Task: structure prediction
Amino acid sequence: MAPAAQAPRTATSKADFSGIYTAPDPRPYFMALAPLGYQVPEHAAPLVRAEIDAPGRDPRAGTVLDLCCSYGINAALLRTSLGLADLTARYTAPALTDLSADELAAADAAYYAAQPTQPLLRVLGLDASAPAVRYATRAGLLDEGFAEDLESADPSPRLARALASVGTVVCTGGVGYIGPATFERLLAHLPPTVRLIVLVLRVFPYDDIEAVLDAHGLVTRRVPGTVRQRRFTDAAEQAAAVADVRTRGLDPTGKEAAGWFHADCFVSRPAR
Result:
């Protein structure tokens, strides 16, 4: 999931999916990504829950900021027992094809309200795509949504106030579209006890963002191993990704060379 209105930070030749992030509802998102085995939000959810439930956490831990939230997919996985396969089946179902975006949002609000939910969990969403944020809010997945681009401007007063209540931040695909500027602007308003779970495609560096986190008293560790993000759209995209990870000094064997984008997971916590 990533904001729609910006080009990636590096020259890596990823396929352009910008259109699926500005549609009025999530059906194009799932129609485009489901055939590619898109799965990274499902890998992130248990890591986020572990941070929320960690002993001695700040009471604000249960207020989560989904950074680059798009249509609220992370929120759905965190708030309910639904899996990504459930959401994919819903949004690719022929029965929903003829619904307008407004009708689908109303149906989704009822659908998600009927699901057993995680107690004491609030989810705020931030994304540059106003249509995606609007939909996730109307569907009841986000308690508050913010359509803002922190790469180019400071948070609005409303977002700045909301950030003070956040204890956990998750980002499952935004890095490459957002960079150090966004994290610097967020951390100026987030509590010092905040924890971040950020999944980053291996074609993108994270060192510059990690330096920003370090300057704010957060210690970052990489979770051992990698997780799959999605299959490549074609041989050209795969070749570009293999070249990118090799340029970064990484080995694509069994990962990008085997046909999948892979992501590293970074967890940042207060030094004390």
In short: The first helix runs from residue 27 to 33. Residues 71 and 132 are 5 Å apart (CA to CA).
